[in-house]
Amino acid sequence: MEAKEFREHLVNDLIPFWNRLKDEKYGGFYGYVDGDGGIDEKKEKGVILNSRILWFYSAAYSLLGEETLLSMASHAYRFLKDCCLDTEYGGVYWSVSYDGKPLDTTKHSYNQAFAIYALSAYYMASGEREALSLAYDLYRLIEEKCRDEGGYLEAFARDFSPAQNDKLSENGVMADRTMNTLLHVMEAYTQLCQADPAEEVKTSLREILAIFREKIYNPKLLRCEVFFDADYGTLIDLDSYGHDIEASWLIERACKVLGEAETAAAMRPVTEGLAEGVFAHGLDRELFALNNECERGVLNTTKIWWVQAEAVIGFYNAYELCPDRPAYRECAERIWAFIRNYVIDPKSREWIEEIRDVEQIDRTQALVHPWKCPYHNGRMCMEMIRRLSESV
Predict the structure, then answer these.
(1) Who is most buried in 6, 85, 133, 188, counting CB within 10 A?
(2) Is the distance from CB of 362 to CB of 341 less than 8 angstroms?
C-alpha cells in the first residue's frame, strides 16, 4: 500500500469523473448519474452533495495545487452561496431544483454542518474571506438554533421551528439526537478550527468531545450508540461499523487540531476502543471487508462503499496510534485491495454503492445521487496520500 496508488486513483479516476458533472448552465453539479454513467440534468441538487463536492475540490486543490481544481471549487462555491443559502431565515436548504430554486426547505443540523465543512475548506484553499464569514454565520446559527443545553438537535422547518427527524432516523426509530449528526458537526467545527482557531469554536469542540465520551460511547461494548431520545436514552441495539471506525479517526483529528494534551488523553480510550471494537466484530474475515451493521444481534453483511473507505483510514489511523498492532495496518491494506477488486466500477471508475454478493455485483446502482458523492472515497485518497507520504 503506497501513496502513489491513492494519488493515481484520485487524479486519474475520481477527479475526471466528477469534472464532467459540472453544470455550466445552472451552476453547481448535476445531481444524478445512473449505473451506466447517464446524467439526469433535471434531477434535484442535494445541498449535502454540493457541499461535499465543494469540500472535495477545495481539499484536492490544497493537496495537489492544480489550478483547475480551484476553479472547480470556485464554481461549487458560487452555487452554494447563490442558490443554497436561505437569505430570509438563514441556513442552507436540504435541496434545490436543477435550476437552483429552493425545493426541500428543511433545515437540518447535519446539512448546516457540511456547509461549514465545505466553506472552511474553500477558505483554506482560496483565501476567500467571504467563505469564512459564511462558515461562521452557519456555526453561530447551529449554536443558537439547533441545540439545547444537552447538545445538538436534528431537524427543523425552514423557519427553524422543530420538525421530525425523518432524514437521519433509520432502523424503525425516530431519533431526537443521533451520533451521526454529532459526528459531522464535530467534523465541521474541526475544519473551521483548523481554518481559523477561534476560542468559541474550540469551546464547542471540547463540549462535543465530552458528549461523545460521556453520552455516546459505550465502553462495555466498544461502540458508539446510534439513535437517542432527548435524554440520550438509546433507542435501539445497533452496531454501526462504518460510523464507529469513522468516528475513531475523526475524534482523533479533532483532538489533534485542538492541540490539547489533556483532551487528547481523555479521548484516547474512545478512539482506541472504537477501532478495537470494529476490528473484533465488524470485519468479514473471508473477504476482508467491513460489514454494514448489526441490529439486535442480526448481522447485515452488505458491503457499503463509504464504510470501506472509512475503514481504510480508520484502521491505518489506529495503527499509527498503536504501532504495536500491525494487524490494523494489514486490515487497511486488505480492505483497500477489496475496494480495488470489487468496489471501483471498471467502466466509470467511481465506486459501486452496495455489494451484497461479490459473484453477482449489481452494476445498475446509481453512481451519483444526493447521498453519493466524492467525499468518503476522495477523502480516503487524500488522507492516505498524506499519511503514507509522511511515513516514508
Answers:
(1) 188
(2) no
Strand residue runs (E) in 173-301: 177-178, 217-218, 223-224, 227-228, 238-240, 283-284, 289-290, 293-295, 298-300
Asked if residues 142 and 182 have their Cβ atoms less than 8 Å apart, the reply is: no
Cα–Cα distance between 113 and 178 in angstroms, integer?
14
Residue 181 has pLDDT above 70, yes or no: yes
Q: Facing residues of 284 across strands?
A: 289
Instruction: Give the pLDDT mean for 168-177.
Output: 91
Which residue, among 242, 110, 370, 344, has the nearest Cα to 353 in the 3D structure? 344
What letter does residue 391 receive in the DSSP assignment?
H
CATH number at residue 353: 1.50.10.10
Name which of 201, 191, 193, 238 is nearest 218 in CA terms.
Answer: 238
Structure pTM?
Answer: 0.97
How many whole angstroms separate alpha carbon 259 and alpha carbon 252?
A: 11
Give dist(CA 210, CA 217) in Å, integer.
Answer: 10
Sheet of 293-295, strand order: 238-240, 293-295, 298-300
- pLDDT number for residue 170: 85
Q: Residue written as cell 471506525?
A: 245
* 278-335 residue pLDDT tens: 999 999 999 999 999 999 999 999 999 999 999 999 999 999 999 999 999 999 999 9
Q: What angle do CA 7, 11, 12 make, to 5 degrees?
A: 110
Q: What is the pLDDT of residues 90-113, one digit of tens each?
A: 999 999 999 999 999 999 999 999
279: cell is 476490528
Domain around 185: 3-391
- The amino acid occupying position 50 is N
- Number of compact structural domains in the chain: 1
